[in-house]
Specification:
InterPro entries: Asp_de-COase-like_dom_sf, MoPterin_dinucl-bd_dom, Mopterin_OxRdtase, Prok_molybdopt-oxidoreductase. It comes from Actinoplanes sichuanensis. It is built from 31 helices and 26 strands. The strands form six sheets. The chain has a seven-stranded mixed sheet with strand order 5-4-15-14-13-6-7. The protein has a six-stranded mixed beta barrel with strand order 21-25-22-24-23-26. A five-stranded parallel sheet has the order 10-9-8-11-12, sandwiched between helices. By secondary structure, the chain is an alpha/beta fold.
Length: 754
Amino acid sequence: MDDDGSRRSLCTFCGVVDQVTITPAGKVRGTGSAGVCVKGAHYFQQHLGSRPQDVQRFTGPMLRSPYGWERVSWDYAIDMAADSILADRQDFGRDSLGFYGVGQMTTEALWIAKKFFQGHLGTNNICSNAEQCLANNAGGHELVFGNEGPFSCYDDYRHAEAIFFYGHNPAANHPTIFQRYVRQNRGAVKVVVDPRRTDTVDLLLADDPNNIHLPVRSGSDVLLNIGFARHLIDHDGWDPGYVAGHADPASAEQFLRFVRTGPFSADEIVARITPHGMDPADMRDRFVRAARLWTRDRVVSTSSVGINQTVGSAGVASILNLHLLTGHIGAPGRGHVRMAGQSNASAELAMGYSGRLLPFRMKVTEEVDRERMAGLWGLPSWRINPEPGLPVASFATSERLRTLFVFGTNPARNFPNLAKWRERMMDLCVVYIDSYYNPEIMEYADIVLPCRTKHETSGIFLNGERRLQYMEPVEEPGFEAWSDVRIVCEIARTIARRLTEEPPPATTGLDALLDVDELVAKGNADLDAHALDTAFSYPLDEYGEPLTEPIWDEIQAASRGFYNEFSHADGRPITLTDIRTGEGAQWAGERRYRPGSPFSGIRAADHRLATFHLPAEERLVPYQDRNRGGFVLITGRGAMGGKAVRRNNVAMFNSSTATGAANWPDTNFVYVNDSDAARLGITSGARVRLHNPIGSLECPAEITADVPPGHLYLSFHPDKADTHPNLLTSSDNIDPVTWQPLLKDTRVDLALVP
């Protein structure tokens, strides 16, 4: 607390993560470089000093019984969670356990959960929201540069001469960066690649009609970027010297031949990316003007969920190909900026939140990686499961799972193939860890463990420009709520005590006598009570919460030698004091890569040249070419419509569960292009049915020209009518590199309800 009574914390409602100050009068002020938007302001104003019933808080652990939900003690609830782990692991093996987390967890919590579930319990079924939203950004970066870490900073927007947004609506989803960094650079030409005419498009065209909207057909981002590359090559707009010095020669030769000889001229590209109803000559003019911008000296691009969930890692790689082709990397105003919807999604990527990854992007299938990680965790290497876990999308259809831990998110809404997933959850023991009562997930949960919420907990967050910052608690919870870190540590130590009280067959020397598979097959015989107790016993504060510093020191020490090493540019370890000072610390300094330096793989010493990525053939086919007769369903955050509707929707999206289901809208609307509506006899407000082989839903329609023909838009925002886009999305259509579901590659049919 400051001398004047002000309290400082972080706004963690998106990947920007910036500092806020709450005045003694309860006003919320953004005091960092970016500021605070309506999401953070809405949250703090709703929660500070609030009563639990006003914000639908859990006030203690709960257990489902034959008589309904019963309030229980923490000891009993932790015992039940430990029992479920031990029973299912004994009867069905370590693959029966699953963990699904959220990008709102602190970095310490992400580390502790990985160490417990993947290290000690041996399950690789450990995923998070990043695998549904940001994983393809990391996948594209790894395809081209060999690592997942971004090079650029938000400040690059200020220095750019041209800025490209791919599938990104920052005016609604990252408004502080959009206002302070993007719009204030009046000299830069901005290009928005998005089928919809979004708030970002409207504002940028109002600022300057020379800004460009490319309303390409959904699924044609890779094709567009190949067209840009062809234009640059044909008009001497690329940098042969940079390519010769920084790109693998074989991949460069193959890429250049592919682009030069394929059907990628401006006329051929425009014919394939132009939506129905748009003048191709208009699109050609916009395409050529945008392509020429890549010849400017300073170019910045940004991709977000729109492209991640559409064409995936190949789409992000196609953008990075252009940066490699032109040399726009690693200097002020040059590079690709990562923007995420989840505040700590970048930490999820660094911690390897995927069934195929270990922390720092090592692979579970590689023996040398398992040995390295096991050594860091103080475990024998055989304890880490060499078999990849499930993709998060496959949680819905796999028969492996028996017990699922859910931290701070809602799989009753977030999973593709949602109807199937809801059926599957009825067969699982679901341990739900969250702050707020959510009627959707409560239908499926069995054990509820209340955690501290954003303004009550402390911890480290890693934002999209590699900046580590510390969130201070603004107030203490007035009831029984623990941090995520404490909950995991208590479950781990309870299991250790249980193993001591009822010891399994002795494991001392057992691994030397038995085959590892035989040892693991003996249920819980492979668990080590002493190792569990030691690994999760940290110094505690006065409230019984594990202290951050020893956990951070453990993470920092483990990161050494990796590309994601949490150190300053001069190699000094980043300390907790560094993170708590000013606006935190940026790992590897202001810019990770500088011209003339080599790129790196997963380990910092793995120097390598960049690799041009050649897309698979299906990534060059817009969705409508594959979905003849159907519509492409575009999903996203936030409603369209009037300014008041959009503002309320943005404010409520991340905090809707916190303020209760009573504040949810009655229904969501599906937005239909006016020409499609006229063809089908649909008027505004009419009920329509969206259906495909996966599922169906009904909702009212809104008619708009802001959605192109052949496309529909439906928000993910919770509503009382259960209008979930994921009732229609597939759990089989996943990115081959990252396993992220391609939710926006969804075909639906549309019909008027009689």
